[in-house]
């Protein structure tokens, strides 16, 4: 276990390196930080930190820089999440409050995250498998043609046209709409098939064909829309950090083009907890020089999707974690109220 003083030295090295982009020496540390010890003692502490693998010496400099292991300890033990200022929080709320639908919410969130963190922002659309039904609307377009509108608790709207096997009157349509909503509103999409399987039997024989067709269309919609969707923005921000990538930026950009890679980066959205993966903790080789900060968003403690940012390991972790957490909280509120 590292002593408190050596933890403070590590914290100072991380803060200085992130702020200055320059390897940090013992003299600079003692001048900038009130460590209460001599430069010789700091040099000794730095030697121990280097032996333990928390910092390293680039071949071009006498100073030290944090390693992935050093950043990991900083994030786990030394870094508090930096809260956003009141003006920043108001700006987030005002920007997101202007969204008109789910696509607009996701698009605004991506732009906002990229601007706040100056990193690459990734936002996952709410998954239907983790969503619940808010309302099912059935509209008559002709005597044997209907429109089904499915609205989720996250504001997602799906529309389907239905050609009925026989004419379907307004009273029957109203009856089906009421019975269908009484069974599925507030229930998870994964539960819907079982909840409606016996519904046709409760209708007159001449209407059962149309009821079955409506239910088939509803269930097909759930299957079609289970594919995960993402939006990404701020990729150009990476050009500001070209010197932070040891070889070139191309492997990072190639990795960010693969949706499967991005979904793995964000992780499974099971809860609203925050995840920080640093450097080689990312399984994809092209992202070994990056860090990912991601958090779930949704209502309450259960997440319906995740959002986050990707940037170099030389990242302002407290500020980035604070921004990601704040944006996720506001997006969850907007979806809950929509």
Indicate the proportion of strand residues.
15-25%
Strand line-up of the largest beta sheet: 7-3-10-9-8
**Stretches where pLDDT falls below 50 for ≥5 residues?**
none
- Total number of helical segments? 12
State the secondary-structure class: alpha+beta
Summarize the structure.
With 338 residues, the chain is an alpha+beta fold. It is built from 12 helices and 10 strands.
Describe the structure in your own words.
The protein is of the alpha+beta class and 338 residues long. It has twelve helices and ten strands. The strands form three sheets. Strands 7-3-10-9-8 form a five-stranded antiparallel sheet, with helices on both faces. The protein has a three-stranded antiparallel sheet with strand order 4-5-6. Strand 9 and strand 10 form a beta hairpin. Helix 2 packs across helix 3. The radius of gyration is 26 Å and the shape is elongated.
Give the secondary structure arrangement, pairings included.
Blueprint: H1 4-20, H2 26-32, H3 39-51, E1 55-56, E2 65-66, H4 68-78, H5 86-97, H6 102-117, E3 120-124, E4 133-142, E5 145-152, E6 157-163, H7 170-184, H8 192-196, H9 208-224, E7 230-233, H10 250-256, H11 259-266, E8 274-278, E9 290-297, E10 305-312, H12 317-337
Antiparallel strand pairs: 1-2, 3-7, 3-10, 4-5, 5-6, 8-9, 9-10
Helix pairs in contact: 1-3, 1-4, 2-3, 5-12, 6-12
